[in-house]
User: What shape does this take?
Amino acid sequence: MSIITLVILVNTNTIQMSPRERIKFEKVLYRPQEGYPDNYTDNELFLKSLSKNKNLHTYSFWDCTYHGQFPLQQLSSTIVFFLLHFMEITVSDSMLYLMALVTVMGYLAIFGYSLHEIRTVVLLGGFLFGLSPIIQTLTKTISDDTIYAMASICLLINFCLHDYSTLNGDYMSKCVSLNAGIFAAVCLASRLDDLNNVLGTIVFAILIYGILPPLRKRTSKRIMPLCTFVFVSVALYLAHLHAPIVIYPILVSVLACLIVVPLLFVQFQKQKDNIFGPWDEAVLKDLGCEATRDITAE
Assistant: This one.
């Protein structure tokens, strides 16, 4: 009798054993189960653990509307920043001191009032003040069209890669977004002739791209609609004064972020159908002390 025939007979006898002779199959690895091949699959247990949309969190329309305020605020602040540059507002000493004070207070509110953070603020302030004359003449040999194109691309990158989550964390895209926003401010500031305007542009960019986003995550849900209203109102007002054509994209963004996209998301999440079953990766669970003692005894 050949080895292959012997193996076939053994497997056949194993499978045809009576229920009394066979040990009840269990889907465990820590207990030997004689009478079952390694690739045995119990039809009753295979789909017993099948589940759909496990741990699914369903969002309501108002939840989606709340989260839609974050990109709307970011877009409004970017439009305000861009329009203020073209309005050529002269930044006085008092305005510059006020923006610097608000930025410093916001920074310390986020990172704490420790001596180390105060040193960081003083160092960055002195560094920025010392580099302002260099920034002012940094791109004199580059045409205005190139500078504005670079600034627009950087602001677009800032908007697309901005961290819109409500959780505090370190994300690579957040760093890229902040750097893109500051670089756009440097490009626009290099087109200005007055030193106060150069400093004001950089400080304002640090305020809206570096200080406001972390503070926004700490804002209460009740105050968030008011903040959104202020951002959108300022953007609409400045657009009305300098570029009325920008009013239409702002209104479309308001409808998209607060109505259209939330409605689509609520409808699409009903079609979500994730299947979980025995084919997924195994996850170790804490069985408790009694179960651990039983397994060890066996």
Summary: The longest strand covers residues 51-52. The chain is about 65% helix and 0% strand.
